[in-house]
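Memo to structure team: turn this sequence into structure tokens by end of day. - J.P.
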Amino acid sequence: MDSYEVVVIGGGPAGLAAAVSAREHGAEKILILERDKELGGILNQCIHNGFGLQIFKEELTGPEYAKRFINKVEELKIEYKLNTMVLHISAGKVVTAVNRKDGLFEIQAKAIILAMGCRERSRGALNIPGYRPAGIFSAGTAQRLVNIENYMPGKEVAILGSGDIGLIMARRMTLEGAKVKVVAELLPYSGGLKRNIVQCLNDYDIPLKLSHTVVDIHGKDRISGVTIAKVDDKGKPIIGTEEYYSCDTLMLSVGLIPENELSKELGVEINPVTNGPKVNESLETSVEGVFACGNVLHVHDLVDYATLEAQNAGRNAAEYVNENISHEVDGKEINIIARNGVRYTVPEKININRMEDSIMVRFRVGDVYKNAYVGVFLDGERILHKKRLIMVPSEMEEIKLEKVKLAAHDQLKTITIEVEKE
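Reply from structure team:
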């Protein structure tokens, strides 16, 4: 059995950044396992620009962004295996995987970084009535067909869901000559970034209907149209508000699910809100020596943020391997509680003795808030009251916690982050 200091599962943007960071912080023997035929993950099909503004201070396309990290992996001579499916991770950090070249094999790891990304929610999870004709695609599948396989999914398109991939595909299909009839969103606010609504819908006069959903799919062999209707505040269709749109293609952009089957099998504790692992200040999961980053941890709006997170995971994995991270229980582990409009936080607990001088806590809100405040409380005492002009569920928020302030509170047990109206 081959042994490695750090094994990274997933060769997308998070996995690549984590592996590079681990090498730069002292880990020598690193292996990336990627199930696709090339490194880069989802970025390979994201040919639009807008990536890299935070990391590289310039606008890049998805493949350009991925290539920078792939080049770094090659330059640092980090090993990787492509077309390799990880089947199991044991409690002893033995990774079982399979590919055509090596067959079924096992690898002993000192530390593991989970970077498997996420998958799209399918039609089966939506319970849309109607037949099951051809012409129904997830937005990501349609994106791959157009940008990589050079296939055109259809000519008249309706889109359900306003996630970023769906918004970007509305523009992409328009540029390829298709007619995008409508984008329907169940919620009263968009699931995508504001800039994508402006650049992908408004600039092309594509209507966005909030609080609407598809209530029927027409056609047998091939989809011929959809009926959408307005929904009430409980998400139930309102009778009499139905509208019919003829189309030969329906794209679904209805959310992403972190790929955590391996994590659950390993016994990693999962956050029911994010469907990703619960992690501490080192991005370490409930299983010692197993770290998580990127969309497998929680769905990000910008790949730059996923990269920053992955760099931290890689550094911490390297420090764990080099025994620079202590796991002794010293009573300084503090839970972070999300409440009153804050859906979750990453991380969910902090050990003051192990944290850096400051730590960035990222979170999402559960509704649209204008001119509201983010409140941070230490055992009920408010230490931060920061105004935000607008907070929306589609955009990640962050707040910095200073070690010196946390350490000044004797016997601190909880940190609470919430939305305050005033």
